[in-house]
Amino acid sequence: MKKVSVIIPTMKGREAMLQKLLYTIPTEHEIIIVDDEDLLLAAKRNKGARQAKGEYLFFVDDDNYLKTGALEEMVKAFDETIGVMGMTACYDDKKMIVADGGSDRSMLTGFTSGIRTNNPLWRGCSPYGDWATLYGVDEVANAFMIRRELFEDAGGFDEENFPIDLDEADLCKRIKDMGYRVVYNSKAICYHKSQTYSHIPNFRRPLNAYFMGRNRQLYQRKHLNALSYCVYVAFFLPVFVGFYTGSLIWRKNFQMIFPFLQGVFDGLRCCRENKYQQKS
Predict the structure, then answer these.
(1) Are residues 79 and 122 in the same domain?
(2) Residue that terminates a domain, selected from 192, 227, 244
(3) Which DSSP helix (H) or strand (E) runs through 266?
C-alpha cells in the first residue's frame, strides 16, 4: 500500500479524542501531530504538510476517529483524475447518520448545500444513487486526502486569507481549476461527534463568527470576476448578512452579532488582520 502521511492539527483539551483517533490509524502510516498553539487551522495543516514524506496527505481533525480500513479505501479509489477525496463522516458508529458528505457551492451567491447531510449513510440521494462509492462535490471538510505532489503544486492552504473557515473550499476550487475532480468516498468512513447540522446558522466563538463574515467576502473577491463580484455585493451579500444576523437573533446568541458584522466589513475592505486572537 502507498504510504499516507496523516496530518492532525490539535486543540488544547482534546487529548482524549486525539488518543482515540490515533488508536484507529494503522501504524504503517506516518503520523504528524501539529499542536502549535500560535497557529490557526490552515497554518497547522501547512506546517504538517511540510514535514510529510508520504505520497498522500490525509488531513483529519482531532475530534474524529476512523472506521477500520478507511484509509485503505481512500488510497484504493484514487486515480489520476482525482485531486481531493473526502472521507464520509458519520455522527457515531451506531446510527451511521451522515454528518458530512461534502458540499456544493453556488459561486455567484456564495451559499452552500450539504450533500447527504443527516441522511442514513446508504440511503440513495439523487443524483448520486444507492451505494455510490464516489460522487462529485465542490468542497470537502474535516477529513480528506490529496496527493502530496498536487498539494505542493497548488501552493497548499491559503493561510493568509483563510486561516480558518473556507480554507478547504479555497483549496478545492483551485484544485478544480487545475482540471482535477473533488469527490467523496462513501465507503471510507470516519466518526465525528459534531452537533447535528441545522439550516439555521450559529457560532460557538467570536473567532468563528468573525471569520465566517470576513472570509466569505475574501473568497468571492478571489474567485469571481469583477462583474460577478459586483452582482454578489449588490444582491446576495445583503441576503447573507440578513439571514445570519436574523439567525443569531432567533437563537438569542447576541454576543456573536458584532464580530460577525465586523468580519463582513473587514472582508469588504480586504482586511487580513486577525482581530480575534483565539486559536483553533
Answers:
(1) yes
(2) 192
(3) helix 257-268
